[in-house]
Amino acid sequence: MSTSVMTSSPSPSLPSAAAAARTPFLREVYEPAARRAIGALAGFAVFVLMWQCISLLVPEIPTPGKTWHAAAQLFADPFYDNGPNDKGVGWNVLASLRRVGLGFGLAALVGIPAGFIMGRYAMAGAMASPIVSLLRPVSPLAWLPLGLLLFKAADPAAIWAIFICSIWPMVINTAAGVSRVPQDYLNVARVLNLSEWKVVTRVLLPAVLPYILTGVRLSIGTAWLVIVAAEMLTGGTGIGFWLWDEWNNLKVEHIVVAIFVIGIVGLLLELALLRIARRFAYEE
């Protein structure tokens, strides 16, 4: 009597099925990221090539290689301090960020509550809207002489200019957000007999927060733009003053480095606030 033993080899269907299921997921996740990375590298390569061509046509403009060498020297010791008018690029960036932080913080303390009042009360909005519309288009640098007159010092005048340029986007966006809160929310609050403080903190603030963050993003970008020009005029320590001082010393490669530093810091500020805005975004 013969017995036949049937042996079955492991079926390759399960691993292949798992691999087949992973392949579309990996393609969906990594292919867009790879395309964006390749596009960014290609765009940067074209930019550097154009820069090199322009520097060959205009010898006064430093080449990318010369600028890179100058940046390496500057960032080898970014926090040296040889006196009030000779500090490293790191100290100058921190000084500009300090001014932006103070002016921007004061603007938020004043602008966001003012926007709530304008959006919440029609009479306050009607009274303040013409003033905001009149003053908002004024260049922030036009306020700098008034700041010098009021504060008798360059540093508070620069913070004053930042305050003026930062306040309008927060006022306008906050007021627009409050005015667009659905009336049903306020009706429910009235039925529940909530106090005005609870209406603001429990009803209005969560609904208006995306508008506030949009105003904050616009304000911080404008503030970083203005501080460079303000420091060129007021002097002292700061990335704007450092850029202008390098121009007086005819160090054009340092000017190009300063332009890149200003752009990178502004981009990091924008990305940080964009991340915060996405964190608090919601769908109605």
Automatic annotation (TrEMBL):
Gene Ontology biological process terms from the UniProt entry: alkanesulfonate transmembrane transport; monoatomic ion transport
Domain ABC transmembrane type-1: 93-277
Residues spanning the membrane: 37-58, 100-119, 131-151, 157-178, 224-244, 256-277
UniProt entry keywords in alphabetical sequence: Cell inner membrane, Cell membrane, Ion transport, Membrane, Transmembrane, Transmembrane helix, Transport
Gene Ontology cellular-component annotations: plasma membrane
Annotated compartments: Cell inner membrane; Cell membrane
Annotated PROSITE patterns: ABC_TM1
Principal place of residence: membrane
Membrane topology classification: Multi-pass membrane protein
GO molecular function terms listed in the Swiss-Prot or TrEMBL record: nitrate transmembrane transporter activity
Cell inner membrane keyword on record: yes
Family under the similarity heading: Belongs to the binding-protein-dependent transport system permease family.
Protein name as annotated: Binding-protein-dependent transport system inner membrane protein
Species of provenance: Bordetella ansorpii
